[in-house]
Structures are given as C-alpha cells and as structure tokens.
Amino acid sequence: MKLYQFSLSPNCQKVVALAHEVGLRLDLVNVELFKGEAKAPAMLAKNPNGKVPILEDGDFLLWESNAMLSYMATKANRTDLAPTAPQERADVERWMAWGLAHFAPAIRKVAFERIVKKLGGLGAPDDALVRAGTEEFAVWAKVLDQSLSGKDYVCGALTIADFSLATYAALTASCGLDFGPYPRAKAWVERMTARDSMKQTLMAAREAA
Fold first, then answer.
1. In the Cβ-directed half-sphere of 162, how many Cα atoms lie within 13 Å?
2. Which candidate, 19, 37, 162, 194, has a CA 20 to 30 Å from the CA of 79?
3. Are 81 and 160 in contact (CB under 8 A)?
4. Cα–Cα distances in Å, from 97 out to 15, 51, 91, 103, 161?
5. What is the mean pLDDT of residues 45-54?
6. How many other CB atoms sit within 10 Å of the CB of residue 1?
7. What is the band of 209 on the pLDDT scale with cuts at 50, 70, 90?
8. What is the H or E stretch that residue 129 is in?
9. What 3-state class would DSSP assign to 93?
C-alpha cells in the first residue's frame, strides 16, 4: 500500500501510526502542501478534494483518514481495534465523528495560527483566532476528560478511535494548548504517545520538519 502524505499533518500521522500498530507496510510519498502539490492534476485525479492523505492499495484509492483507519484495521483482521458488534462499532464511530466535528477543528485553529503560518511564511498569528480555538479546546478537552472516567481509552479498550484523536492531541504541546486541567485526558495522551507506533510516527515527523 502507498500513502501520499504530508508528514506534519495529524490526519496523515494517524494513518501511519495505525499501520505501525497493525504491522501493515506503507510506502510513503511526501506531498509538499506549501508548494501546492496536492492540487496538481495527477494528485487531483487521485483525490478531487486536493488534500492528503490518500491511500492507494492496488487499483483502490481511498481518501479521508478515518476511512483509512477502518480499512487498514479490517485488512489486518484487527477486530479488537475495529469491532464489528453493532454497539461497540457505533461507539468507535461516535468518537471518530466527534473528533472530526469538534476536537480536531479546535486544535487545528490554534495550530494553524501558531505553527502553520510560521512554516508557510503566512504572517503573524491572529490572536483572536488563537483565543477562540483555545476556548473551544477547553470545552472539548473537558468532554474527553469526563468520558475517560474509569477507562484507559475512549471506548474502554484501545480502538481506531484513539488513533483518530491521538495525533491531534499530541499536537497540543507544540501549539500551546494545555491538557493540565484535564488529568484523565492528559494521562490518555501520555498513554497513546508512549506506544511504539505513535513514537515512530511522531519522531519521523519531527525529523522531516
């Protein structure tokens, strides 16, 4: 399988981390977003949205990172990570949807202002957007913290939902967001980033930066 990716993207990192976790080999092809490569004709033919990651498995092309997590876990026959029982599966999908709708956008708002703008030479951070993102993060970090009461992972056992959220959670320290007031969520982040699969992925991203 081949993954077209930008190594600093949490959406790409979650796919790489799960591949490490389940032992699937990914041939990584770096796409320079700041040079507009994701919108080149050859890439738009693979993903008309002009974004990465894009997973290529033979003739099968897949975009949307959470769909990739489900696909890879199923391909690796890891029903522990992607359960098939209706209620367990719904719980996993619930958290993945929550991440896309609430958790990731709050973190991404701050990360864009404090990290992406600097990397891309896009000017100074907008303090109003940083404040708004920080306030949103506090709301969703509290939800995560409360939901982890009595649990090590968001669905109880480790699932693809944790990988879906963890690469965004790992980004918080570098953009100045603090899990300190949310001890259960903080412990979960530490638990996830201590996994070999996550460590390999995050280290590779730092080396590529």
1. 30
2. 194
3. yes
4. 16, 19, 10, 10, 9
5. 97
6. 18
7. low
8. helix 127-147
9. helix
Average pLDDT over residues 108-131: 93
Q: How far is CA 84 from CA 64, 103, 171, 195, in A?
A: 20, 25, 30, 24
CA 151 to chain centre: 21
User: What span, in angstroms and rounded, lies between the C-alpha atoms of 190 and 204?
Assistant: 18
Instruction: Say whether pLDDT at 30 is over 70.
Output: yes
Q: Is the pLDDT of residue 5 over 70?
A: yes
Vertex 43 angle, CA 49 and 170, to 5°: 65
CA distance 16 to 44: 22
Task: Kindly state the tokens that stand for 116.
Answer: 């992406």
153 burial level (CB within 10 Å; 0-12, 13-18, 19+): middle
Tokens for 79, please give them: 């029903």
The pairing of strands 54-57 and 2-5 is antiparallel
β-pair type (60-63, 2-5): unpaired
**For the chain, how many residues are written?**
209
